Amino acid sequence: MKHVDYIIVGLGIAGVCFAETLLLQGKSFMVVEDGKEGATIASGGVLNPTVLKRFTAAWNASQFFEKVFPFYNAISKRIHFNVSSPIQIHRIFNSIEEQNNWVVASDKKELSPFLNAEIQKNKNTSIIVPFGLGSVNEGVLLNPSGLIKAYRAYLQEHDLLVSETFQYHKLELPEASVSYKGYTAKQLVFCQGAKVRDNLYFKVSVSPEGSKVFVGNKGEYVIFKAPQLQLTDVLKGPVMIIPLGNDLYKVGASYERDDFSEGITRDAREEIISKLKKMISCNFEVVHQVSGIRPTVKDRKPLLGNFLENPQLYFLNGLGTRGLSMAPLLSEWLFQHIENNVALPSEVNIKRFA
Ligand SMILES: Cc1cc2nc3c(=O)[nH]c(=O)nc-3n(C[C@H](O)[C@H](O)[C@H](O)COP(=O)(O)OP(=O)(O)OC[C@H]3O[C@@H](n4cnc5c(N)ncnc54)[C@H](O)[C@@H]3O)c2cc1C
């Protein structure tokens, strides 16, 4: 038997950020992951502190964003691969009223660090901008698939990874510890994204009578090539255009609440492309499409912590639509809760549904 402090199940952004937190804190662990593409790999990688539909700040934005850059920088250094960079995010205005609302919003305390009050003029002839642009400060662009691939390679190299689907029937729960195949640990953290729905320990405690706590939300992106577009910033209109380099862009995403089906759909592609045509005037060619399920919860807040029945089994889930910006601080909250008994903020504590 090999003894570690933690077993982690799943290697999306939740698994990566919790593993990184453990490495920073000098704890031992091993990760079990199935190598399948979850929400993180499908995601756009945009860390946006604002809600550009309504001109409001994202929930807890200041606190989450304080941690984002240093944390992802530490990961980049560890794996020798740059995973994040600052990016400008521009919002296309459709009316004078929207311009005015933007200026008013940029004066609010929680938004002033993030919204640039000045209305920007568009200089790019390939995009359709009738009433100017608003710019967001502090945006970050992450390379989610590059991050997962490089972090997995790092864990493999250090013998910290078991590549398989976690088998629940092999999990044993002796008092105050866990045992899984050849490993024992003090605790186990499930970081499974939308697949937590299949987890018996989750089902029994969170939705015993089929109550819909975990709603899920399917999202799709289209990847297109457009040499004339020449866009280096993120552009938000009816959909979001994200530059990937080499004249490639990701555009989307779609939102399909309570849809857990796998795979891409023609409906989502057509909807995204019709919205894209309202934003750009140059030619483009669709080259790819991806999909994923956002792990969303009915009250739109994360699910962190454990249950009384199995106190050694923890969850880091419910990362929803903005998981990439929240995962570093959520991992720290969970770690401090487990190790130092620091109370979790009540709005993220999984016990609110128990
Ligand atoms: C289309 C789309 C666009 C998005 N865009 C953004 C964005 O721009 N910015 C942002 O902040 N957020 C975005 N999100 C949300 C963000 O991607 C999620 O909040 C986040 O990735 C969830 O991470 P996770 O680690 O909880 O889950 P996942 O990334 O799904 O990872 C869970 C992993 O665990 C594995 N796993 C599960 N069960 C087992 C098991 N039994 N054994 C072994 N392995 C297992 C899964 O296969 C998976 O690899 C987007 C999501 C989608 C779908």
Task: Give a written overview of the molecule.
The protein has 354 residues and is an alpha+beta fold. The chain has helices spanning 13-24, 39-42, 61-79, 96-106, 144-157, 200-206, 266-276, 323-340, and strands at 2-9, 29-33, 46-47, 50-51, 56-57, 84-86, 89-92, 115-120, 133-136, 140-142, 161-163, 171-172, 178-180, 183-190, 217-225, 234-236, 240-245, 248-252, 256-257, 285-294, 303-306, 313-317. Helix 1 crosses helix 8 (323-340), helix 3 crosses helix 5 (144-157) and helix 3 (61-79) crosses helix 8 (323-340). Helix content is 27%, strand content 28%. The mean pLDDT is 95. The radius of gyration is 21 Å and the shape is globular. It has 8 helices and 22 strands. Strand 17 (240-245) and strand 18 form a beta hairpin. It has 3 domains: 2-43 and 145-213 and 298-353, FAD/NAD(P)-binding domain (3-Layer(bba) Sandwich); 88-138, no CATH class; 217-294, D-Amino Acid Oxidase, subunit A, domain 2 (D-Amino Acid Oxidase, Chain A, domain 2), CATH 3.30.9.10. Strands 7, 8, 9, 15, 16, 17, 18, 19 and 20 form a 9-stranded mixed sheet that branches. Strands 1, 2, 11, 12, 13, 14, 21 and 22 form an 8-stranded mixed sheet that branches. The protein has a 3-stranded antiparallel sheet with strand order 3-10-6, covered by helices on one side. The structure holds flavin-adenine dinucleotide.
